Amino acid sequence: MNRLILAIDQGTTSTRAIAFEAAPEGGLQPVAVSQIELEQHFPQSGWVEHDAAEIWDATLQTCRAVIAEAGGVDRFAAIGITNQRETSVLWDVTTGEPLHRAIVWQDRRTADATSKLAAAGHEPRVQAATGLILDPYFSASKFAWLLDAVPGARHRAAKGEVKVGTIETWLIWKLTAKKNGAGARHVTDATNASRTSLMDLATRRWRPDLAALFNVPMAVLPEIRGCADHLGDCEPSLFGAALPIHGAAGDQQAALVGHGALKAGDAKITYGTGAFLVANVGAAPVASTSRLLGTLGYAVGDDVAWALEGSIFSAGSAIQWLRDGLKVISESGESEAMAQGLKDNGGVYLVPGFTGLGAPWWEPDARGTITGLTRDSGPAHFVRAALESLAYQTRDLLDALARDGAPRLKVLKVDGGVTANAFAMQFVADICEVEVERPAFQEMTALGAAKLAALGVGLIGDLEDHPVEAPERWTPRMEAVERDRLLGGWRGAVRAAIIAANPDPT
Ligand code: ADP
User: Fold this and answer.
1) What is 35-68 written as a DSSP string?
2) How confident is the model at residue 1 (pLDDT cuts 50, 70, 90)?
3) Cα–ligand 1 centroid distance for 298 (angstroms)
4) Atom 2 of ligand 1: nearest residue by CA position
5) What's the gap in Å between 322 CA and the centre of ligand 1?
6) From CA 406, how far away is CA 404, in angstroms rounded?
7) What is the pLDDT of residues 350-371, one digit of tens each?
8) How far, in Å, from the CA of 319 to the mean position of ligand 1?
9) Best of 37, 38, 311, 319 to mutate for ligand 1, by most ligand atoms within 8 A of CB?
10) Which residues pair with residue 22 across a beta bridge?
11) What is the residue with the minimal CA distance to atom 7 of ligand 1?
12) For residue 30, is the peptide bond before it cis, meaning its omega torsion is within 30 degrees of 0?
């Protein structure tokens, strides 16, 4: 049997293809990679767009490069897809051309629409069914905006002439369509569907009442499938064979699978520009009262993992600010030695609310705040406070998980650029009182998509991780008294940031 999987990782800033080989001893090994950067469009304040046609071209190019480098299409068994979540596309079914630029997950243009729904009291119903709060982040309000903005789109939607989808749905359509659109598959997977505000988490079906609430006709929505299902076969003229598409998951969920965080109490956090925690809560849902998001970890046949998710808006971006804004470091990596050069934080705390505070605070108007400055405070204190803030923010999310009654965390699996910083990782272990584990291979998102496709096509028997190299580990070693003192300082700083965002009118 062919032993290679082609993983497509369509991210916010780039499109990547990675070929993985199923090793005879278990596990998937990367053998070829290709990447193309993606142009970002900012047509107005708060608006972010991508060109879906550019995304498709880059997907074709990177896949072709990787197939050639890995020895030809005949060596491949299947394709798996992972993608930036929530980003929404509207296209013409006959031409296969997008009818508008894709609206990216960060885009806030539908804030008024979702605020109106919240003000009208719809949030409890939406949250109970979908796990999500009402926010322009999620796809439903973006789909509706596209249908309203493109002339004739609503009329054509009723006739089946236009469709919507998130990025994996768009790519699967393009991968399976003939030139005139014949044969195209219009499908999504349950994890991506769980980010629309339209899918009932319990049944994994669209909710007609929510589709009506958001004014999205059911006729434009894709079919919801499992994450390792057979989602279609590639049009043979694209790569030279009708490769089956056998897996799909949103990026954060794919990373959960990549890490092998498959049991209740397993969690992963990706520390990049922002940080995304996804905690596997097991086979039964846990409803959040702490403003975490309820979502699916994965759905493979009857094996369904529920998850809670929390986002930190500024993680690595705080380090970028030290570098590009304050200019106290010239490279991100310098931050480690600088922070370590201090015996402690000197009482200085940085709340990196540059773009507001995410879960569990959800304070969009909060801004970056520094507390505890004295005449002894220097550049190193700013650096240390920025790195420490990653751990405190993680702790806030883990406390929210605990308040929600999620299963106790056993180990925190980490990936992303910031995890190169050993000071920060030890500090996370200390402040969060949890073992931190970083795999040697870092492409967890692509690995997750590859694992799902390999499982779907029968190349591997389960989603467990079989790393060749041992992961790096950080074990908590801080005294409780010290931890409590630091957390007290952090909470004071968060309070200051929230108070500053709500100035006293008198
Ligand atoms: P993204 O996928 O969001 O673009 P990456 O996972 O590539 O992010 O991580 C990039 C981030 O990691 C940047 O914000 C950068 O400042 C930060 N970073 C990289 N190396 C280090 C380091 N040694 N210490 C702290 N932060 C780092």
Assistant:
1) EEE---B--STT--EE-HHHHHHHHHHHHHHHHH
2) low
3) 27
4) 272
5) 12
6) 6
7) 999 988 888 888 887 788 999 9
8) 8
9) 319
10) 28
11) 417
12) no
Strand, helix or coil for residue 290:
coil
As for ligand 1, residues whose beta carbon falls within 6 Å of it are 13, 272-273, 316-317, 319-320, 332-333, 335-336, 416-418, 420-421
Rounded (to 5) percent helix, strand, coil in the chain:
35, 25, 40
Q: How far apart are CA 248 and CA 292, in angstroms?
A: 24
For residue 19, the cross-strand partners are: 6, 32
Quote the longest CA-to-CA distance of the chain: 74
Helix (H), strand (E), coil (C) string for 439-490: CCCCCHHHHHHHHHHHHHHCCCCCCCCCCCCCCEEECCCCCHHHHHHHHHHH
Q: What is the pLDDT of residues 177-194, one digit of tens each?
A: 987 778 899 999 999 999
Distance between Cα 44 and ligand 1 center (Å): 27
* Residue 77: Cβ within 10 Å count: 20
d(CA 330, CA 454): 42
Closest atom of ligand 1 to CA, residue 11: 2
- Ligand 1 pocket test target in 268, 273, 312, 331 with most atoms within 8 Å of CB: 273
Is the Cβ–Cβ distance between 61 and 34 less than 8 Å?
A: yes
Check if the beta carbon of residue 232 is closer than 8 Å to that of residue 176: yes
Query: Could you tell me the pTM of the whole model?
Result: 0.91
Provide the pLDDT for residue 362: 83
Mean pLDDT of 281-297: 90
What whole-number distance in Å separates Cα of residue 13 and Cα of residue 36? Answer: 9
